[in-house]
Write a structure and sequence with these properties.
- The complex is a heterodimer.
- Chain A has helices at residues 3-13, 17-23, 27-37, 43-56, 61-87, 89-93, 97-121, 154-176, 183-209, 243-246, 288-298, 305-312; strands spanning 271-272, 275-276.
- Chain A is mainly α.
- In chain A, helix 3 runs antiparallel to helix 4 (43-56) and helix 5 (61-87) runs antiparallel to helix 8.
- Chain A is globular and about 50 Å long.
- Chain A starts with a helix and ends in a 12-residue tail after the last helix.
- Chain B folds into 2 domains: 2-46, no CATH class; 59-252, Ferritin, core subunit, four-helix bundle (Ferritin).
- Chain B is 48% helix and 2% strand.
- Chain B contains 8 helices and 2 strands, in the order H-H-E-H-H-H-H-H-H-E.
- In chain B, helix 5 runs antiparallel to helix 7 (172-196), helix 6 (144-165) runs antiparallel to helix 7 and helix 6 packs antiparallel against helix 8.
- Classes of the chains: A mainly alpha, B mainly alpha.
- The interface between A and B is large, with 94 and 88 residues.
- Chain A: Pfam families: Ferritin_2 (PF13668).
Chain lengths: 324, 257
């Protein structure tokens, strides 16, 4: 093993390696000290720690931090929602054992996402909101909004949960292209994105089978999917769980600041990469109309930051600047 | 680190070789910011960074965005082939027409065929074969356990593959398109997992709930308790996918980096 050989090799792909190391001050001095203090066997671990310092805290740029703080805001929204749901004995008593366990898994995931994003952002992370920041009834602080029984009625709770997860999936998808400058952060965001989609799928299964059913996977969807959705989004799902409030979650976004060639279409979109997929060879046996619906299901759509914030602020109290 | 994920054969002597292979950018990102990965950097410094074995009979997906699209196309061909084939097995044909399982497997068949046809239309030049030959000889299409177990493996693998390949895409359009597909694959994976075992839609085998991601693509991000998908590198993915592809249709993804 040759430490300087390694640095030299890194320099071939990252000419700034010396600056990175140097900007963390005295790294080579540290190496000298380490060499005196550590046995040869311990060097790989110590060296790993030094590279962590050099790269893990590489400034990721304002844009990346902004996107991560946006993601963190959404994770707070979700995390506090599931915490409140877990604390409601009335709500829990209306849920089957498997559904309670599933919601606990989701609650842990969202809390983990908050912790992870705070760790990545470090001192750049937004302040943690207070629980008073949110009104999950959609009442903007009145606690008497359209989802007034959200923490006592399991059906309402799952409807809001699905709405939050479907929104999260679209938000991370829209954010991905803004994170391309940092591959590590991009991969982490993608790895959160698919977990949110797994959550959405499960919540949709729980809704179609009923909150108190232990076999969520055996529920059968019922068109037009407001109350008994598929695990994927079919067309616009007729506006989702509560169309007056949730239709924008499945609608089109704002393309004003979209990355090159990216558009934020409604979930009923059938054109991908400039190709209208209804013209694809249809060997499925489906009618043309049903084939078009299947195309909308086969692709989830991305959403821009501004539109997501507007949707998410349904659950933020008036006067708060959270997610503004 | 990559050495640990591939059959080593008898190349132990490589430990004694000097570091003459430049650390590739792909490998480099895997080390950046990594807790485990940065330590592994030292290990890579000790041994040769082996390229995947390239034999004459492999289909090379190529490099750059076209390579990633071909890689996705190959996986979608495999998935679509599987969901097409299962429709003739007695497990599927015995399902009630209104049953949840029939409706789910029908939708997955439609979705995966659409994904396959989409890539076929989208990759206008440098596209790999449109007719990769699958090898489903290990699957019992008359068995619910075998069919759903394989569906789960394919869907989880698809999610891990798209997530792991995102970093190799240079076009915002293609990255977003991959995102549009991968979340649908994740929705598939979750419901199939629940069919196999209720409540397993996220499990520690696919999400870093209680242990860290040891994949070469994790970049240190998938630490224990971070609840992230366990994404996989292309070489990790094809090590599995190739077991479901016939000779002559197996994939070489060494150009993806």
């Amino acid at each position: 093993m040759n430490f300087f050989q390694i640095i030299s090799e890194i320099e071939k792909v990252d000419p700034e390696v010396y600056d990175r190391l140097d900007s963390r001050r005295s790294i080579f001095k540290h190496m000298t000290g380490l060499g005196q203090k550590l046995t040869a066997a311990a060097v790989p671990l110590a060296l790993g720690a030094i590279f962590n310092k050099a790269y893990a805290q590489t400034p990721v740029g304002a844009t990346v931090n902004d996107v991560l703080n946006f993601a963190l805001s959404l994770e707070y929204l979700e995390s506090y929602f599931y915490n409140a749901g877990q604390a409601s004995t009335t709500l829990q008593s209306g849920l089957s054992a498997t559904n309670k366990a599933a919601l606990e898994l989701i609650r842990i995931d969202e809390a983990n996402h908050v912790t992870f994003l705070r760790g990545v952002l470090g001192t750049a992370a937004i302040a943690a909101p207070t629980t008073a920041t949110f009104d999950f009834t959609g009442g903007k602080g009145s606690a008497g909004g359209p989802f007034a029984d959200v923490f006592t009625n399991p059906a309402t709770y799952l409807a809001v949960a699905q709405s939050l997860e479907d929104t999260g999936v679209r938000a991370y998808k829209g954010g991905a292209a803004l994170l391309m400058s940092n591959k590590t952060v991009l991969t982490a965001a993608l790895n959160i994105h698919s977990v949110e989609a797994r959550h959405a799928s499960r919540l949709r299964a729980m809704r179609r089978a009923g909150p108190n059913n232990n076999a969520a996977s055996q529920g059968v969807p019922v068109a037009p999917y407001n109350a008994a959705p598929k695990s994927w989004i079919s067309g616009t799902d007729n506006g989702g769980a509560s169309p007056t409030q949730t239709a924008p979650i499945y609608g089109a976004g704002n393309n004003t600041n979209a990355p090159t060639n990216v558009t934020f279409d409604a979930e009923s979109n059938t054109t991908q990469g400039g190709t209208n997929l209804t013209g694809l060879p249809n060997t499925t046996g489906l009618s043309a109309a049903a084939f078009a619906v299947a195309i909308t299901e086969a692709f989830d759509e991305a959403l821009d930051v501004t539109t997501v914030k507007t949707i998410a602020r349904t659950f933020v109290v008036n006067g708060s600047t959270f997610l503004a | 680190m990559s050495d640990n994920l591939q059959p080593r054969g008898s190349d132990d002597a490589s430990f004694a070789q000097p570091l003459y292979t430049p650390i590739k950018r792909r490998s480099f990102f895997m080390y950046a910011g990594a807790t485990a990965g940065a330590t592994a950097l030292v290990m890579a410094g000790c041994s040769k960074d082996n390229d995947p074995v390239t034999s004459d009979n492999l289909i090379n997906v190529g490099s750059g965005d076209t390579g990633v699209l071909n890689y996705a196309y190959a996986l979608e061909q495999l998935e679509a082939g599987f969901y097409t084939r299962l429709r003739t097995g007695t497990y599927y044909t015995g399902l009630g027409s209104a049953s949840a399982e029939k409706q789910i497997l029908d939708d997955l068949y439609y979705h995966e065929v659409i994904h396959r046809e989409f890539f076929k239309a989208a990759i206008t030049s440098g596209r790999i074969s449109d007719s990769l030959t699958p090898d489903f000889s290990k699957i019992d299409f008359n068995s619910r356990t075998s069919v759903l177990g394989t569906a789960m493996a394919f869907e989880d693998l698809g999610v891990a593959a798209y997530n792991g390949a995102g970093q190799y895409i240079s076009s915002p359009l293609y990255l977003t398109l991959a995102g549009k597909i991968v979340s649908v694959e994740a929705r598939h994976a979750a419901i199939i997992r629940d069919l196999v075992m209720e409540g397993s839609f996220v499990g520690n085998d696919v999400v870093t709930i209680s242990s860290a991601n040891n994949s070469a693509s994790a970049g240190g991000a998938g630490s224990s308790g971070s609840s992230q998908e366990r994404s996989k590198t292309p070489s990790e993915v094809v090590a599995v996918a190739n077991t479901f592809l016939a000779e002559g249709s197996k994939l070489n993804v060494s150009g993806l980096k």
